[in-house]
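Before relying on records like the one below, remember that each one covers exactly one chain. Contacts with other chains, cofactors or solvent are not represented anywhere in the record.
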Amino acid sequence: MDDLKDHLATYLDNSRDAMLWKAEGLSDGELTRPMVPTGTSILGLIQHLGFVEYGYFVQCLGFTIEDEHYAALEADADDGADMWVAADVPCAEVLAFYRRAIEAANRNIAALSLDAPATVPWWPGERRHTTLGRLMLHMNVETARHAGHADIVRELIDGSTGMRRDNDNMPPYDGPAWNELHEKILRASESR
């Protein structure tokens, strides 16, 4: 089981790193700009992931969350407050919040076995009682999903793409080659 736990932790760390990488080099305006009609921004995704890291890997494992940023989000009457960043909240604070959440999560993950009991109060009653292993699997999926969102949002901002800092997993195309591919795909779509 330790090998499985290590694999789950490694994949989760890779997705976490991808999220932080998507924020690198952007201005505050670019980090917080809603790029799609649902209001999704890179920093909103990062704040959301910090919020749920604390929720799943601290609260649901029976520990107390002692973080002012988390407490402010939890107290906000807006159900979606964790998905966007208010103008008076510095972007650096949100990035630090995510890093603190990861540190707290990693401490608890390291201290517990995969079969350690967990309770998720916002899940349906029949699934509410679970384990650390299930939470790690859930957060792998959630973080990877949002890293994909962040990849698209970043591409909309400045054209940057890629899976990870150390392996972008993209074909080695230049601008004209990407334009040619885009046009080819567009023609195929329009001919349907």
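Helices lie at 2-23, 28-32, 42-57, 68-75, 91-111, 132-158, 175-190.
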